[in-house]
Amino acid sequence: MSIDKDTAARVAKLARIRVADEALPALAEEFNTILGFIEQLNEVDVEGIEPMTSVTPQRLKRRKDIVTDGDIQEQVLANAPDSREGFFVVPKVVE
């Protein structure tokens, strides 16, 4: 698959990225390079390979799942710019 200048412009528009017309050929070439790398990766045989998150085996750190009573409403609202009746007050954004 090859990306041309028009396709690069469409991708930039969909991504809401403003790209100058003179930069579109270079962007199309970068896209083609990326697609080339992806084609190389597709050639690798990964049959029977387990997915991993690190090159060294590690267990994820976990905390104990302890139920607490909470009851720290004052501490939570302490840094709020405005609070009333135990709730955050935010500016009205919908009429």
UniProtKB/TrEMBL annotation:
Keywords: ATP-binding, Ligase, Nucleotide-binding, Protein biosynthesis, Transferase. It catalyses: L-aspartyl-tRNA(Asn) + L-glutamine + ATP + H2O = L-asparaginyl-tRNA(Asn) + L-glutamate + ADP + phosphate + 2 H(+); L-glutamyl-tRNA(Gln) + L-glutamine + ATP + H2O = L-glutaminyl-tRNA(Gln) + L-glutamate + ADP + phosphate + H(+). The keyword Ligase applies. It holds the Pfam family GatC. The keyword Protein biosynthesis applies. InterPro entries: Asp/Glu-ADT_sf_sub_c (IPR036113), GatC (IPR003837). One of its GO terms (molecular function) is glutaminyl-tRNA synthase (glutamine-hydrolyzing) activity. One of its GO terms (biological process) is translation. Its EC number is 6.3.5.-. NCBIfam families: gatC. Allows the formation of correctly charged Asn-tRNA(Asn) or Gln-tRNA(Gln) through the transamidation of misacylated Asp-tRNA(Asn) or Glu-tRNA(Gln) in organisms which lack either or both of asparaginyl-tRNA or glutaminyl-tRNA synthetases. The reaction takes place in the presence of glutamine and ATP through an activated phospho-Asp-tRNA(Asn) or phospho-Glu-tRNA(Gln). HAMAP family: GatC. Belongs to the GatC family. PANTHER family: GLUTAMYL-TRNA(GLN) AMIDOTRANSFERASE SUBUNIT C, MITOCHONDRIAL. Heterotrimer of A, B and C subunits. This is Aspartyl/glutamyl-tRNA(Asn/Gln) amidotransferase subunit C. It comes from Falsihalocynthiibacter arcticus. The gene is gatC.
